[in-house]
Amino acid sequence: MKNKVFGIIAFIALALLSNLSYAQSTNGTTPPATGGSPAFTTGLQFGSMMINGTNYNAIRLQPDLNLGKFGVGLDLNFEFDANGNFRMAEWSTWQSILSKILYIRWGTKAGLNPTTDPVYAKIGSINDFTLGHGLVVYRYSNMLNYPDIKKMGLAFDLDLGYVGFESVVGNIFDWDLLGMRIFGRPLYQSGIPMLDTLTVGATWVADLDPNDPVPSAATPYDFADDPTSIPMSVYDFDASLIVFANPIIEMLTYLDIVGISGKGSGEFVGALGKIISLIPYRFELRILQPKFLPNYFDTFYDASRSAKYALLDSITDGYAGWLFSSGISLFEDKLVWTLEIQDSFGDITKPILTMMLDIKKELLTKFAFRFTWIRQNIAEFADIFEYVSTDSILITDIEYYVSDSLAIVLNYKRTYKLDAFGVPQEFVSTAISTKMAF
Asked: Residue 16 pLDDT more than 70?
């Protein structure tokens, strides 16, 4: 009954707000949109969402401040169950209070080459951790099972030209996943064409608690360690060189040698860059030894974390493989589409497909759309579209704008996690809400 009452109230409020917003935008009291991003915005969402199998009526306030290099966003969430009981687990500990910081950011990640922005730091929810060329940590996300499980990550990079480092911590509430890449440019500013871009680096990343027990719904920030976990680590030695850097084509070539502690190793050579600043590309050749997988800490990692290291023993033969990715970025990044596929030569492994699509509101006026699809172990073409599987991750966000400041939002996420026995546990999160920006 209370769910129905909440829904009716939300619908009436939405109707009144949309009519008010429409009236303001048509009588001249509200200036037309300029397309620029304001320094301060506040988003308000209300609706329903499912957390750990329980449905909640949710209100979420998301203020966001963006001042040049500095940015901070908050995620102030209030949830009530069907009986009207407030979900205290989100406000009862210092970790839960601290988690209301969605992110704090300084600078922009420099990538592989020195820029005018040598310092990058970000703390909070981060879905794109990558170190170096990504052969060890590649698009790792600490938000895979958000909001069921909330983690606060840390990324800190320093690039001084001649030397620098990149670092990552998956969760400062539970310092289990952490790593660093240090690098140097011995001929930096020497004036020697191409050779002045030569970069050599070394990476070490460790998981000190691979079993990583899932906190209970009652204590979602109790990140206890599993005493039976055996720490593991991955290392990488790399070198890279910028071959082209002009408006027509950008190309960086690289060589990496990667090893997993107590298991196998792999060698990689590749090239990445952009064509006419619109088409990103990457092509990579791989020689992989037994008991080894590339991109060990990937987007899937938190789903397969407890069993992944042991599963390496099932790779009994070495093989050669490849990776190719491309896409397009149009209308000043208002439409970005990327596609990546990796596989072995022959039938040693099965393909892994990653596809992402991001369409901004400025392009479609009434809609914004974000879609991420990752599918591994593709045995046949039809598998690509099989999303009810422990080999897939699907994340979808659709926003319909009733006005410039009011939107109806649908969020759907389907992931999974393997327990210590390798049995998959499904994680599904669906939320429908109303978002206001003012």
From this structure: no
Phi and psi (nearest 5°) for 385?
Answer: -100, 5
For the chain, the 3-state helix, strand and coil shares in percent, each to the nearest 5, are: 15, 50, 40
pTM as predicted: 0.79
Express each pLDDT in 293-350 by its tens digit: 999 999 889 888 888 999 899 889 999 999 999 999 899 889 999 999 999 988 778 8
In 219-355, where does DSSP find H-type helix? Answer: 301-311
Show Cβ contacts of residue 389 under 8 Å, excluding neighbours closer than 6 positions. Answer: 375, 383
Sign of CA dihedral 371, 302, 132, 161: positive
Q: Whole-angstrom Cα distance, residue 113 to residue 325?
A: 21
Q: What are the residues whose beta carbons fall under 8 Å from the beta carbon of 245, sequence distance 6 or more? A: none
Q: What is the pLDDT of residues 213-269, one digit of tens each?
A: 878 767 788 888 999 999 999 999 999 999 998 889 999 999 999 999 999 999 999
DSSP 8-state assignment for residue 114:
-
* Burial track 11-38 (b if 16+ CB lie within 10 A, e otherwise): eeebeebbeebeeebeeeeeeeeeeeee
